[in-house]
Amino acid sequence: MIFSSGLVLVFLFTIFPLWADIAIPTEIGVCFEKNGKPYKKPVDFNVTCFGRHVWPHEPPSRLEEPLSKVFSFSAQCPTCGCKIEKAFHMNYIRVEYCDLEGTVSGKRFKVEKYAKEPVSDCKGDGFRNHCQLRVKIP
After folding, report:
1. What is the CA radius of gyration of the chain?
2. CA-to-CA distance for 88 and 56, rounded, in angstroms?
3. Could you tell me how far CA 108 lies from the centroid of its own chain?
4. Looking at residue 63, what is its pLDDT?
5. DSSP output for 74-90
6. Where are the domains of the chain?
7. Which of 28, 29, 27, 24 is nearest to 127 (CA)?
8. CA-wise closest residue to 136 among 102, 105, 107
9. Residue-wise pLDDT tens for the chain (138 aa)?
10. What does the alpha-carbon distance between residue 98 and residue 28 come to, in Å, rounded to a whole number?
């Protein structure tokens, strides 16, 4: 009996920490705007966020370290209102700002520090998030 109870405890302590630290499937509604209107042409884009990796019980002095790239993703949106699927793993990350670079009709653009989070207005049920990404093309 002791052996089987110990085996159950080992199983629980090895599986549950992994389960609690998983990437969350996220549906992102994307809309680019130009001149105050929804942009209806395809946009290839890359989001890069800068900040720090912050582990649990980390000393506060860690927050003074230089910023580094902590998160990124790329996608293509054929028109305003498209939906993309990404699995976000944001645990142990403190984002300070995000940049977005894109290409529209062969022309590159960059929006520096467009947000403090890669996406916004997130709502979820614990198994899936639904978020928004709205950016003005300069």
Report:
1. 19
2. 19
3. 22
4. 62
5. EEEESSTTEEEEEEE--
6. 23-136
7. 24
8. 102
9. 554 544 444 444 444 444 456 778 899 999 999 999 999 999 999 999 999 888 777 666 666 678 899 999 999 999 999 999 988 777 778 899 999 999 999 999 999 999 988 999 989 887 888 999 999 999
10. 16
Instruction: Give the pLDDT of residue 110.
Output: 97
Count CB-CB contacts under 10 A for residue 118. Answer: 22
Residues in the chain: 138
Site of tokens 């992102």: 28
Q: Tokens 């467009």 belong to which residue? A: 114
Q: Which amino acid type is present at position 88?
A: F
Element (H, E) at 6: helix 2-20
The closest alpha carbon to 89, from 11, 32, 15, 25, belongs to: 25
The Cα–Cα gap between 46 and 122 comes to: 19
Which amino acid is present at 138? P
Residue 78: both structure tokens together: 């054929």
Q: DSSP secondary structure string, 97-137?
A: EEEEEEEETTEEEEEEEEESSSSEEEEE-SS-EEEEEEEE-
